[in-house]
Amino acid sequence: MDFLFSDNAAGVKPSAIREILKHSSEPGMIPFSAGNPAGEAFPVADIARITNEILKKEPVAALQYSVTEGFMPLREKLADYMGKKHGVVKDFDKIIITAGAQQVMNLTAKALCNRGDTIVCENPSFVGSLNAFRSMGAVLKGVDMLPDGPDLDQLEEIFKTDKKVRFFYTIPNFQNPTGLTMSLEKRKAVYALAVKYNIPILEDNPYGDTRFKGEELPCIKSFDECGLVVYAGTFSKVLSPGMRVGFMIGHSTLVDKVVALKQTQDVHTNILSQKIAYDFMTKCDYEAHLKMLKDIYRRKAALCMSEFDKYFEGKIERTSPEGGLFAWCTLPESVDMLSFVNEALKLKVAVVPGTAFLPDESAKCSCFRINYSTPSDEQIIEGMKKLAQAGEKFKW
Ligand SMILES: Cc1ncc(COP(=O)(O)O)c(C=O)c1O
To answer: Which of 137, 183, 310, 353 has the fewest CB atoms in 10 Å of its CB?
Structure first.
């Protein structure tokens, strides 16, 4: 059957890169390519106990339809937590619970963008968000990532010259894919530019609570005095991605529109998952859980980076993440990135070609992303050895 696809669907295509990625799930493959939280970080026993309690105490409410805005006690708890810990909820803001942070990107773009409008993104950036924006027919303009965050000159130039910019999408903490963190000065400067040009910021912070090294930095949303910043949060990286519970904090006018749009998409976020998230935050030791999680990622990141350096120091540049799940590796000019990734695949090691994360997927890229949370310690050690073997085919 030949379907006539909509213009919006036509914008989202499987690329050659994603075809390569299909191999990542083959049996025996060492998965540096995934973006999954470490399985051992899931609080399985607590979730089982909480779920049983909920189903015993309030089975109908837990299984019934619910409200689109989200489970009120969870919204209140998040407002309190985010206010105290991240200073983000202002008087003009509202919170809506979403099906993961991914839905925040989707609904924000849906609320603010017409086909042909521009969304400014970091270059590279998270492919799930880029595809959500593409599916709205948005034109993506990339701002290069520097070690302390996006290039401000490029950002201002786009803000100044492109009258169709609808918002700037940024991941300030342990960015996916680079692992880079935006400096405090840059956070302030990005907010100042947004105010100067009256352009909203979509601040995506799924890894904010995973910092395992260095000093906490304030969210851009915490500077927001005029409702220009939309904040996307999620339980995916700190509790469970399968539960699909995220949230959006933004100016009430925008959140009200997003509520109306969400109603047409999935009516509301899974209510049982919302109740579990709420009970986990209020009845378990949430801070102790976060500490356990950070301990796991600190250890895994250190192991992965030291194994990487054993073989590639002086050959492949890499970032040094202080949280999150990823590092970004840059090959020398003499090595073709896609050939290197393919050689690695032949040896059953999967990394993600950097091209997958570019707002312009046809641009040249000599980088790849590695993830240290999914592979086991043994896989990290074996995988780096094999990656080095793959590298032997190339002139460095
Ligand atoms: C930067 C970034 N934003 C959003 C998401 C989506 O998260 P969620 O599972 O909450 O939809 C991810 C997931 O990997 C991510 O890396």
So the answer is: 310
Q: Which domain holds residue 68?
A: 44-283
Q: Quick check: CB of 281 below 6 Å from ligand 1?
A: no
248/312 same-domain check = no
Q: Mapped to the 3 state alphabet, what secondary structure does 259-325 carry?
A: HHHHHHHCCCCCHHHHHHHHHHHHHCCHHHHHHHHHHHHHHHHHHHHHHHHHHHCCCCEECCCCCCC
Phi, psi of 229, rounded to the nearest 5 degrees: -105, 130
Ligand 1 pocket, 246 CB below 6 A?
yes
Q: Is any ligand 1 atom within 6 A of the Cβ of residue 176?
A: yes
On whether both 325 and 301 belong to a single domain, the answer is yes
- Name the maximum alpha-carbon separation found in the chain: 65
Question: What type of residue is 70?
Answer: G
Q: Is it the case that residue 15 has pLDDT exceeding 60?
A: no
CB of 204 within 6 A of ligand 1: the answer is yes
Are 122 and 23 within one domain? no
146 in any annotated domain: yes
Taking the centre of ligand 1 as the mean of its atom positions, its distance from the CA of residue 56, in whole angstroms, is: 32
pLDDT above 70 (res 225): yes
Q: Are residues 97 and 33 in the same domain?
A: no
The residue behind tokens 């890894």 is 207
- Decide whether any atom of ligand 1 lies within 6 Å of the 234 Cβ: yes
Same domain, 253 and 366: no
Looking at 283, 313, 336, the residue that finishes a domain is 283
Q: From the CA of 235, give the closest atom in ligand 1.
A: 10
* 375 contacts: CB under 8 Å, gap ≥ 6: 30, 31, 32, 304, 383
Q: Which residue has the higher pLDDT, 363 or 15?
A: 363
**Are 138 and 272 within one domain?**
yes
Co-location of 260 and 120 in the same domain: yes
15 CA to centre of ligand 1 in angstroms: 20
Examine the pLDDT at 330 and tell me if it is beyond 90. Answer: yes
Who wins on pLDDT, 127 or 26? 127
Compute the average pLDDT of residues 207-221. Answer: 97
The set of residues, in sequence order, having a beta carbon less than 8 Å from that of 250 and lying 6+ positions away, is: 93, 94, 108, 227, 229, 230, 231, 258
Q: Considering the entire predicted model, what is its pTM? A: 0.96
Indicate if ligand 1 lies below 6 Å from the C-beta of 235: no
Nearest CA residue ID for atom 7, ligand 1: 101
Do both 26 and 50 map to the same domain?
no
